[in-house]
Amino acid sequence: MSIDKDAATVVTHVNNKGWTSVKHYHRAGSDASDVYQVRGVPCVMIIDTKGKIAFKGHPAQRKDLVADFNALLEGKDLDGVEKPGEKAEPAEEEGEGKKSTAEDIEKAMNEMDTFKTTTGKELISELKEEATGMMRNFCVLTLSANYNPQDDSWTSEYMNHRVIIGPQAKVDVCKEKVEAKMKEGWSFEVNN
Questions:
Q1: How distant is the alpha carbon of residue 35 from its chain centre?
Q2: What distance in Å separates the CA atoms of residue 164 and residue 174, rounded to the nearest whole number?
Q3: Which residue of 45, 136, 146, 150 shows the fewest CB atoms closer than 10 Å?
Q4: Cα 18 vs. chain centroid, distance in angstroms?
Q5: 89 vs 184, higher pLDDT
Q6: 2-9 long-range contacts, CB within 8 A, separation 24+
Q7: Cα 46 to chain center, whole Å?
Q8: 68, 72, 51, 50: which is closest to 59 by C-alpha?
Q9: CA–CA separation, 186 vs 112, rounded Å?
Q10: For the segment 35-66, what is each residue's pLDDT rounded down to a tens digit?
Q11: How many angstroms separate the CA atoms of 176 and 166, rounded?
Q12: At residue 179, does pLDDT exceed 80?
């Protein structure tokens, strides 16, 4: 399901990826984001061949969405995803989150705003030519915070996900510029 401005963008993306045997929808004016509790974009919700939600979350939480789609189309389960009635084993790069305060979480949210309005825009502008034609090229911040009312405590995981896939020369240039921009003054953990 896409929240792109128009359905044509969805059709183009689906056709370019060859995902034509999968149902895709454009939400238009629906309340789907509220119904499915989507709290940020991008958000991926992958439905298996039996109509069950196989994964819901930020695409950076999955190593290879194409492999996920292919596995589901072959009737396989996704690795590292909780099944009804059982607890999923966390993927190696995922943690339980660290003890945090509301102030820690607010600081991370402020950093995310700064990234979006300054550093993120600068990276997009500086890497426009180098990133053109790459399979995947993004540097995104995610913050997951959980409150435990039993002991009035917070845990959080604040990550900078860097997924850069394409010709090696382009990957090298993009990686170098991202690392230079994101070197100092940030409190996130890096997930390459």
A1: 20
A2: 8
A3: 150
A4: 21
A5: 184
A6: 2/26, 2/27, 3/27, 3/33, 3/41
A7: 13
A8: 68
A9: 10
A10: 777 766 677 778 888 888 888 877 777 878 88
A11: 14
A12: yes
Distance CA 121, CA 135 (A): 20
Task: Dig out the tokens for 178 from the structure.
Answer: 């991202």
Place of tokens 């949210």: 109
Residue labelled with tokens 């009635």: 85
pTM exceeding the 0.85 threshold for the entire prediction: no
DSSP of 88-151: PPPPTT----EEE-HHHHHHHHHHHHHIIIIIHHHHHHHTHHHHTT-SEEEEEEEEEEEEETTT
| Residue 141 near residue 159, CB atoms below 8 Å | yes
Q: Rounded to an integer, what is the distance from CA 75 to the centroid of its chain? A: 24
CA–CA gap between residue 133 and residue 173 (Å, rounded): 14
